[in-house]
Amino acid sequence: MKTLIIGATGQIGKMTTEKMLASGHDVVALVRDKSKLSALESNHLTIVEQDLENDFSRAFEGVEQVIFSAGSGGATGADKTLLIDLWAAVKAINYAVDAKVKHFIMVSSIGADAPDNIESSIKPYLVAKHMADQHLINSELNYSIVRPGTLLNDAATGLLTTTRPATRQDAVINREDVADTLLYLAEHTPKKQQVFELFNGDKSIDSLLND
């Protein structure tokens, strides 16, 4: 199954791209600057250079699955949050519907279910994620929405939970564990749509998602 990864030069996106290629998957990496993937060489990799603020529908040609892990980044303002985390995600979902993809995997965020419950500077980001998630839920696509906790750069442990911890400081997840989860989802298309939060925990990915 050919998989389009949107945001393939971000931290999670790049890890996921590398893991997908290492597992022998055909990957289309949608990036704004292809030089950021210059170290990746694989006969299974196709790089499409395109700005998400423009029309990027051609990247969906021949694609059966999509992973959306793009983000505007913490250093940008609310304008980029609106254009990338919301509008680019909406466009990607619409392109995926037109392309009749079999599975759309969205990297969202903890708090995207109810942005009003979190008073912080990231509320515009959570609102954008919420609206993008809702657009996906209301589409005709088969989807998996992953809402990670606060992201850490530690190595993957392979031990996770979808139950939100009682304290904010425990509501964390290693980026590599998120990438491993995306790989698992790409290799195990769910029979029904799913939305779940993800944190460091005590269960393997397989047992967690098949309980």
Task: Tag the structure with descriptive keywords.
5 helices, 211 residues, alpha/beta, 10 strands, 32% helix, two-stranded parallel sheet, Rossmann fold, eight-stranded mixed beta sheet
Explain how this protein is built.
The protein is 32% helix and 21% strand. The longest helix has 22 residues, at 78-99. The model has no long low-confidence stretch (mean pLDDT 94). The two termini are 25 Å apart. The protein has 211 residues and is an alpha/beta fold. It has helices spanning 11-22, 78-99, 123-137, 175-187, 205-209, and strands spanning 3-6, 27-31, 45-49, 65-68, 103-107, 143-148, 150-152, 160-161, 172-174, 194-200. The protein has an 8-stranded mixed β-sheet with strand order 3-2-1-4-5-6-10-8, sandwiched between helices. A two-stranded parallel ribbon has the order 7-9.
Arithmetic mean pLDDT: 94
Q: Regarding CATH, which class?
A: Alpha Beta
Helical segment tally?
A: 5
Q: What is the count of distinct domains? A: 1
The global form is globular
**Relative helix content:** 25-40%
Span of the ends, CA to CA? 25 Å
CATH architecture: 3-Layer(aba) Sandwich
In N-to-C order, the SSE pattern is: EHEEEHEHEEEEHEH
Instruction: Give the strand content.
Output: 15-25%
- State the major sheet: 8 strands, mixed
Low confidence ranges? none
Organism: Pseudoalteromonas gelatinilytica
Pfam families: NAD_binding_10 (PF13460)
InterPro entries: NAD(P)-bd_dom, NAD(P)-bd_dom_sf
Domain NAD(P)-binding: 7-188
